[in-house]
Design a protein that fits this description.
Helix content: 10-25%
Strand content: 25-35%
Number of strands: 9
Oligomer: single chain
Bound molecules: zinc ion
Distance between the termini: 47 Å
Strand order of the largest sheet: 1-2-3-5-4
Number of domains: 2
Largest sheet: 5 strands, mixed, barrel
Shape: globular
Order of helices and strands: HEEEHEEEEEE
């Protein structure tokens, strides 16, 4: 089992290197694929060669991963493969998880129209408790907006 994980880790590392001079390689491995969000099951990433990685992360990341609105998106995740076979995404403030829309990487954010408040996890607005809308944003846009 350990042997297999070693191979998988090596493959992931090689894949990350193939994905070229992507920044922050030293912080973790980059994986890409389709996000599969299923109710009651761990969210998975399906890579182009058909492998499935269970995704995990800190609490805010877990909430984002559980958002069914993201099901089917092409995503990129940066993190580490754990010994239990899960891919642990880097902490949410590092923006280790990005969604690919129309060829552009976007940050996952949530927006309350009423209060003009942005959040990084799905759920009701901290202010008015209305459900926030999914708002994919360019990383170079000002985060305070
Ligand atoms: Zn609000």
């Amino acid at each position: 089992m350990k042997f297999c994980l070693c191979i998988l880790a090596t493959v992931l590392a090689a894949a990350a290197l193939c994905l070229a001079a992507e920044k922050d390689i030293h912080q973790g491995v980059l994986v890409r694929g389709k996000l599969i969000v299923q109710e009651g099951k761990p969210t998975e990433l399906q890579t182009s060669d058909g492998r499935r990685l269970r995704l995990d992360g800190d609490n805010p990341t877990r909430k984002v991963l559980g958002d069914s609105r993201l099901n089917g998106f092409e995503v990129q995740a940066r993190g580490h493969l754990s010994s239990t076979g899960e891919f642990t995404i880097d902490p949410i403030h590092t923006h280790g998880f990005m969604v690919n829309r129309d060829g552009h990487l976007k940050m996952v954010t949530y927006w309350c129209e009423v209060c003009s408040i942005r959040a990084y996890t799905p759920g009701p607005c901290v202010c008015c408790q209305q459900e926030t809308t999914l708002d994919l944003r360019d990383p170079d846009q000002d985060e305070r907006q």
